[in-house]
Amino acid sequence: MNPIRIPSPAKLNLFLHITGRRQDGYHELQTIFALIDLYDYLSFEYTVQDHIEVKGLQQVEQQHNLIYRAAQLLLPYRKTTQGCSITLEKHIPMGAGLGGGSSNAATTLLVLNKLWQCGLDQSQLLDLAIQLGADVPIFIYGQNAWAEGIGEIITPITDLPEKRYLILKPDCFISTQSLFSQKLLTRNSKPTKFAAYQQNPSDFGNNFEAIARTLYPEVEQAFQYLNQYGKVRLTGTGACVFVEIDCDADTDVMLTHAPYPGYVANSLTSSPVLDIVQSL
């Protein structure tokens, strides 16, 4: 089999509220996941040897590699003895709040479910996805969505307006665990509805923004730069920040003068992974 090369999209959180904390310590969230056309690429190839090989992410130990862990979860269901070699071309920055690792894990589940003839339906894949992380299920759905719970209660959104975004990646690594441990973090935002967001999206923010801007000067610098172009938002727990831009905006000038590396991305209505997997 020739390698099959699959795009693995990023996401933005258009807002992110913490609405409470569960007895098991996990936080209840509300957010909108918006898929964008910034991609990693994964190439899948059968191997004669019965093993899983992941190339392109040497800096991550195997037991922490979400691609490897996703493949491992499918082993009990496969109907073939062939292994798989997976090569990652990394374009989505790591530790950025863009969901690159989660997307890679979901892409692996979707593709190997087909290649290994596992026969799992979407519900079964979602059960595996949540074991890998709260952001993985959205990429199994492959649609923009309103999400609640710890991110696993998903309601697809079919009418998000098409947008273009300028995204900056500040030169810092933000520890999600550290942000969650901050005493000043707002954990009791009032639960809301998608209809309220549609009426006044500018009223919806990210509970992690103030703390990230205070603790990480690089994030504050990125906010200050993008402020000239519109309302700036933090995605996930960061470190990436983004702003909506016009289709005719001079992004070359914007990126040239930006204090950190940046990306221009367009919104997606659905993940291209779904159609590709259907054709396998």
Automatic annotation (TrEMBL):
GHMP kinase N-terminal domain ranges (all copies): 65-143
Protein name: 4-diphosphocytidyl-2-C-methyl-D-erythritol kinase
Sequence ranges assigned to domain GHMP kinase C-terminal in this UniProt record: 205-245
Pathway: Isoprenoid biosynthesis; isopentenyl diphosphate biosynthesis via DXP pathway; isopentenyl diphosphate from 1-deoxy-D-xylulose 5-phosphate: step 3/6
Gene Ontology BP term (one): isopentenyl diphosphate biosynthetic process, methylerythritol 4-phosphate pathway
Protein purpose: Catalyzes the phosphorylation of the position 2 hydroxy group of 4-diphosphocytidyl-2C-methyl-D-erythritol.
UniProt cross-references to HAMAP family, sorted A to Z: IspE
Organism: Acinetobacter populi
GO molecular function annotation: 4-(cytidine 5'-diphospho)-2-C-methyl-D-erythritol kinase activity; ATP binding
Enzyme Commission number(s) of this protein: 2.7.1.148
Superkingdom per UniProt: Bacteria
Coiled-coil ranges per UniProt: none
InterPro entries: GHMP_kinase_C_dom (IPR013750), GHMP_kinase_C_sf (IPR036554), GHMP_kinase_N_dom (IPR006204), IspE (IPR004424), Ribosomal_Su5_D2-typ_SF (IPR020568), Ribsml_uS5_D2-typ_fold_subgr (IPR014721)
